[in-house]
């Protein structure tokens, strides 16, 4: 059995993120895996990385033309719908699976003009034509049903994992520290951290890390507000940031899967987030962190003050966070993918 993942980016794309990490972690644990993605400057059109054959064709637009050509050649095709528009592999391969990271219907208004947003919304609704679907969370599953009209029987939920050999507890900073980490995009609301910081009463360091379209604007304001902005950081630096932080904050409008939350938890760092998307599914209120109302800056600040008010409180939430993160493991996730793929492969 040969398997093809189709995703706009691979690990070496300058804008690679969570979706690429998912495919890499699963793909390297399976056999006979090929990953079709856009061309990347300075990388070969084909290479093998950790047991995965990478094939690079076209750009973010023309990749959709190469996708059906490649999809015909494989037993199983997994279309990673990371940017709303599916690859429509089901038109040429009856065993095509849509891997849905989150539903974009309500997010597109943040990033696109109204006309383009409506076009992309219509394209995303075609996901319901896939016979098979993997959702990374129950939240995304519910969105597929309610917002895209997908038949529930088509959807299998397989949680993403975390690498516990890499993301593990370290030494916390001496001074209470709050971390915000992710791509600086409109729907992730990075500027909310400024309003939250203004309301925090404790003496707390605020650190923001990540690149993105808003980084220049954010960098200027952060400097004035006393927020340490690190820009895009390496994987090693990211792990250290997780380990040193007393709490991680998420201000996203929606996350189909809170990868940064699970990674931070694995490093013994509790989380505070808006109660949107998958956050209430990942964060158990009062155990490994808290969820608060969307844009409720006062509530967010209050929870930060609580966790950072006492080192013993932080340590209790740190232990809980590590324990909660053990629910998620890439080895288990890959086994679930393997079982699911094998089942589909043996269907007539």
From TrEMBL:
Molecular function terms from GO: glycosyltransferase activity
Pfam families tied to this protein: Glycos_transf_1
Protein name in the entry: Glycosyl transferase
Organism of derivation: Acidianus manzaensis
Top-level taxon in the UniProt lineage: Archaea
Glycosyl transferase family domain boundaries: 165-319
UniProt keywords, alphabetically: Transferase
């Amino acid at each position: 059995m040969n398997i093809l993942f189709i995703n706009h980016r691979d690990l070496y794309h300058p804008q690679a993120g969570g979706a690429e990490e998912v495919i890499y972690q699963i793909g390297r644990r399976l056999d006979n895996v090929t990953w079709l993605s856009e061309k990347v400057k300075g990388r070969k059109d084909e290479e093998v990385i950790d047991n995965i054959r990478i094939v690079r064709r076209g750009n973010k637009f023309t990749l959709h033309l190469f996708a059906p050509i490649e999809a015909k050649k494989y037993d199983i095709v997994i279309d990673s719908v990371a940017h709303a528009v599916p690859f429509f592999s089901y038109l040429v391969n009856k065993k095509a699976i849509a891997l849905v990271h989150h539903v974009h219907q309500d997010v597109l208004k943040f990033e696109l003009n109204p006309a383009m947003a409506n076009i992309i919304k219509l394209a995303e609704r075609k996901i319901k034509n896939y016979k098979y679907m993997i959702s990374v969370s129950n939240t995304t599953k519910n969105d597929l049903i309610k917002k895209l009209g997908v038949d529930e029987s088509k959807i299998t939920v397989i949680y993403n994992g975390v690498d516990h050999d890499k993301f593990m507890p370290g030494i916390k900073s001496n001074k209470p520290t709050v971390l915000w980490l992710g791509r600086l995009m409109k729907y992730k609301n990075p500027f909310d951290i400024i309003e939250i910081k203004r309301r925090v009463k404790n003496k707390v360091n605020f650190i923001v890390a990540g690149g993105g379209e808003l980084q220049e604007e954010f960098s200027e304001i952060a400097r004035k507000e006393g927020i340490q902005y690190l820009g895009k950081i390496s994987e090693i630096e990211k792990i250290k940031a997780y380990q040193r932080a007393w709490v991680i904050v998420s201000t996203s409008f929606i996350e189909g899967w809170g990868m940064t939350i699970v990674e931070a938890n694995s490093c013994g760092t509790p989380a505070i987030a808006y109660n949107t998307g998958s956050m209430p599914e990942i964060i158990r209120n009062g155990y490994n962190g808290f969820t608060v109302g969307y844009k409720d800056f006062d509530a967010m600040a209050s929870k930060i003050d609580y966790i950072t008010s006492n080192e013993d409180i932080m340590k209790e939430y740190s232990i809980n966070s590590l324990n909660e993160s053990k629910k998620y493991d890439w080895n288990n996730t890959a086994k679930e993918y393997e079982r699911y793929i094998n089942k589909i492969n043996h269907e007539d």
